[in-house]
Amino acid sequence: MIVVLKPGIRRDEIQRVVERIESFGLRAHLSEGEERTIIGAIGDERLLADQTLESFPGVEKVLPILKPYKLVSREFQPSNTVIQVNGRRIGDKKIHVMAGPCSVESQEQVLGAAIPVKEAGATFLRGGAYKPRTSPYSFQGLGPEGLDHLAHAREVTGLPIITEVLDPRDLDVVCKYTDVLQIGARNMQNFKLLTDVGKLDKPVMLKRGLSATIQEFLLSAEYIATEGNRRIILCERGIRTYETETRNTLDLSAVPVLKQLTHLPVFVDPSHGTGRWDLVAPMALAAVAAGADGLLIEVHPKPEVALSDGPQSLKPPKFAALMEQLKKLAVALGREV
Ligand code: PEP
Ligand code: MN
After folding, report:
1. Rg (Cα) of the chain, in Å, rounded?
2. 272-323 pLDDT per residue, tens
3. CA of 143: how far to CAs of 98, 194, 272, 295, in Å?
4. Which band of pLDDT confidence, cut at 50, 70 and 90, is reported for residue 44?
5. Are 24 and 47 in contact, with CB atoms under 8 Å apart?
6. pLDDT class for 116, splitting at 50, 70, 90?
7. Left, alpha or beta for 275 (phi > 0: left; psi -120 to 50: alpha)?
8. By the 8 A CB rule, do 10 and 58 touch?
9. Using CB atoms within 10 A as the burial measure, which of 23, 49, 156, 188 is most buried?
10. Per-residue confidence (pLDDT) for residue 322, from 0 to 100
11. With a 6 A CB cut-off, is 184 part of the ligand 1 pocket?
């Protein structure tokens, strides 16, 4: 439930309410907004049902959170979450474009993507060092060597990096390198990984599972948030349907739905969402029109020889052309790229 506090409530009064909530075995999450401070009481709310928290000094009202996810819900926090990463603000006016190859293949290949995407206006470099591949015989990623290549590309371009972690045992090494952790679609319900990432002080992008409902997606985000890490970015990347013209069906209505239900930033990945480079630009533009806070786009200097996802990767000139279109669209929407 949400305990709404009166403006001007004293610290010791807040502390008394927090202690009362915690004495029933619930967790108290303080959220200090510009106008109001609220406390989210998370846990078995029935334990608090008979408690008259409303009679505590400084408490204005007590409201139930009706959704099964609590901390990530808009009910709990009406204002948008803005995540700061190396001076960049995700979830604010600026639309962030994270671009780079599907997999890190070599130093030369990463730089061949990183330098032109930076020039075109991307604000993060993406690239997988640990790859979740459907076949055990496909390229599995370079692992730590790939992380080194990404770090070198960050030095050269100044772009912060985002890379996927597949296994909780790799978290230490991946965290040493990356600015943002990525949890891929296949791991959206790896609850051990979610819980471990929730204990870290590192922004995390959580991608929607291949067949996950929006409620399941938000409950996975809640696993991270309830451990303490609230710097979560959601990413719609297409879901499985009966359609075969595209690799997945990009669910763009998820964007406004998520914006209603949660305060977390919402990104869209039109590369995995379609599986086709020729559909990336139209769906990227549509995603921004639908209200996305950012995009995750695969760019490869030579898609024809890519070790993964070549057919959906843009060449740098096509990416630059898309960025020009995005800049114009952003102006029309009162945003910026
Ligand atoms: C990726 O972004 O490289 C990736 C593997 O995406 P997803 O988890 O959405 O399939
Ligand atoms: Mn990929």
Report:
1. 21
2. 999 999 999 999 999 999 999 999 999 999 999 999 999 999 999 999 999 9
3. 20, 20, 21, 24
4. confident
5. yes
6. very high
7. left
8. yes
9. 188
10. 98
11. yes
How far apart are the CA of 324 and the centre of ligand 2, in A? Answer: 23
Pocket lining: 263 vs ligand 1, CB cutoff 6 Å: no
Q: Which of 133, 182, 247, 272 to mutate to test the pocket of ligand 1 (most atoms within 8 A of CB)?
A: 272
Q: Whose CA is nearest to atom 6 of ligand 1?
A: 184
Ligand (nearest to CA of 313):
2
Burial class (CB in 10 A: 0-12, 13-18, 19+), 305: exposed
- Token output for 184: 């891929």
Residue 51: the pLDDT is 67
Kindly list the structural domains of the chain, giving each domain's residue range(s) and its CATH number in brackets, ordered by start.
Answer: 2-63 (3.30.70.1140), 83-332 (3.20.20.70)
- Mean local confidence (pLDDT), 16-41: 89
Under 8 Å between Cβ of 101 and 244: no
pLDDT at 221: 98
Q: 300: Cβ below 6 Å to ligand 1?
A: no
Report the C-alpha gap between 268 and 154 in whole angstroms. 23
